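Dissemination and training. As part of the outreach component of the grant, students in the summer workshop were shown how a complex can be specified as a set of sequence lines and then modelled as a single object. The example used during the hands-on session is reproduced here so that future cohorts can follow it. Participants entered these lines:
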Amino acid sequence: MSIYIDPAVALSLRGYEMPERLGFGTAMAPVMFRAVCQDGCWSNGELIPYEPLSVDPAAKVLHYAQSCFEGMKAYRTGEGIALFRPEKNAERMAYSAKRLCMPPVPESLFLDGVRTVAAYCANLVPGNSGESLYLRPFLIGTQADLTVSASTSYEFYVIASPSEAYHSGNMRLWVEREDARAAVGGTGDAKVGGNYAGSLLSIGRLKERGYDQSLWLNPADRSSVDELSGMNFFAVIDGALHTPALNGSILEGITRFSLIDLARNLGYKVVEGTIHIDELLGQVASGTCTEAFACGTAAIISPISVIGDDGGSYKLSQVPGPVAQHLRQALLDIQEGRVEDHFNWMLSVETVEV
Amino acid sequence: MSIYIDPAVALSLRGYEMPERLGFGTAMAPVMFRAVCQDGCWSNGELIPYEPLSVDPAAKVLHYAQSCFEGMKAYRTGEGIALFRPEKNAERMAYSAKRLCMPPVPESLFLDGVRTVAAYCANLVPGNSGESLYLRPFLIGTQADLTVSASTSYEFYVIASPSEAYHSGNMRLWVEREDARAAVGGTGDAKVGGNYAGSLLSIGRLKERGYDQSLWLNPADRSSVDELSGMNFFAVIDGALHTPALNGSILEGITRFSLIDLARNLGYKVVEGTIHIDELLGQVASGTCTEAFACGTAAIISPISVIGDDGGSYKLSQVPGPVAQHLRQALLDIQEGRVEDHFNWMLSVETVEV
Ligand SMILES: Cc1ncc(COP(=O)(O)O)c(C=O)c1O
Ligand SMILES: Cc1ncc(COP(=O)(O)O)c(C=O)c1O
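and obtained this result:
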């Protein structure tokens, strides 16, 4: 499909100044990709200046949260700009869309979108290790109609933000025993807005207690670990790498399954299974669990220093631990092009000068 | 607080033509109420022409579903226009807002909003019994920032739509045993977008089977009745009126608690308790359960004709049943001003001619 490039894009890009302090997801790139879908038919994509969307006050996205999104990054490599497994994001977004009765964005259109934004924003990809251009594809239901039903019209966007890693320091988790981020038979395994809205209250509560992130438990048993609000969970127990097995309420992180492959390839034993929270806390206390970390596109690998619970606060002995450091470096070495890409994970992007 | 009336409002209203066929929530009134909140401070409200909202592509509402809403109606009574217990909607919206870490809309601002829209749209309130001007107050997080955190800025709107009742015919329910609309410790008792997005797939599935609405089960036990996607559930069993007790995953309908009072006042026995789905289906089959209906602002009281389940399809013997008909009439008589308002439920609105 041919992509329309708005002539105003060049001006927007030339006038752009990189922010002094990057932060995460706050400074937006001055261009965005857009395509619309009416009654199941997709338009061609277009690259246009970043500008406010015109949304009908009765649009489904505003009332019934009919929206899903992805999070991915364009990395500066030795040779240029590259994306990490973008077809996996396309696939997951199609899954999320279907969960909310939205038309999946065709893979080719999705890839056009992220590639075009990365290509034109090549100069906005920061160069320090751990920094990148964060890309945010999203799909919203735009039909103006207040009945609880799927929209007949949709808009797909890719916006971008030059960013640091989401969590740079060590993270303090709090075991969330009251609230749930997703229901059994709910939307936990899809990347949809409602999962995140529901988690804000928990995050607010634990910040007051001096913690950074909720550790969500499985909604079926309320006693095993699922994940964090925007990252998957790993622990090193007796030298092996453990992570919760997919169960319908966990979002299947692309970093998660890539790390599983990478770790096995590096000789680690990896166990996908059930992690009972009380057992885990006992293992932290006894020193059997030496380290824990969270992973995700935004956070890369962030070491966990403490897990707090009503019964007390459990300190990990190794922060950051050797396994987390080893894996983080190995992953970033691939993403930032310092080693050969044996897994064939990177898609290089031909950049466009404006 | 003083309300600013945009001079363009008069022109918008004078040029408005009522749609030939009303439907529900599809034809929007040409004006809307707006107020904004920045860092916890609310602006004055304003009445402006209905127009697309300008929403930043990175706004929290689009990505993390930080939005909540209300549904209420302005009724044409003998004497003019009136609202039904609007302070209850204000209260529930404040509850929903807090669940998603949003600043509650102050009650006075909320009431200003719905009253002003009703006052200026008096000519748009249709006059047949069961018809009304549906009012949709909603609150959205507008800050442009991709971190999973509460917005620092919000917009509150009241839009309106001249409407028929949401479901006019008899409803065919399907027992939803796979999906859940809300989690234990989730957002089921708040009126927030994510609950509705997650229910679309179930609704789509059952429509293919010839049913109208999902009957949601309680997420904790997966075996007792909670409610419908936008209505509460009642059944007449052994002559008494039964409805599920509030349990944290049911939205507390204003129609629901008003009907409980009204029914008791009319001499019915009302039981709020647990309704086991298998027991209920047995009671329908044996004829002990003679009728069932759903209630809500949009649907008023809608009789249920059939409850379908994997094991078969259970027909209610009385459709519409005498209790549903009696209560529907008694409620509408109050709302449409045909009887004295002993409960003091109605708030009359001083209309404005433009
Ligand atoms: C709930 C949740 N879990 C896990 C992840 C990690 O997924 P990925 O590694 O694909 O970024 C994310 C973020 O994307 C998330 O939002
Ligand atoms: C999930 C849900 N349950 C019940 C109701 C009924 O509530 P009310 O009677 O206040 O309209 C609604 C609609 O408002 C709803 O969305």
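Residues B 71, 191, 227, 230-232, 251, 253-256, 296-297 surround pyridoxal-5'-phosphate (ligand 2) (CB under 6 Å). Students were then asked to discuss how this feature might be tested experimentally.
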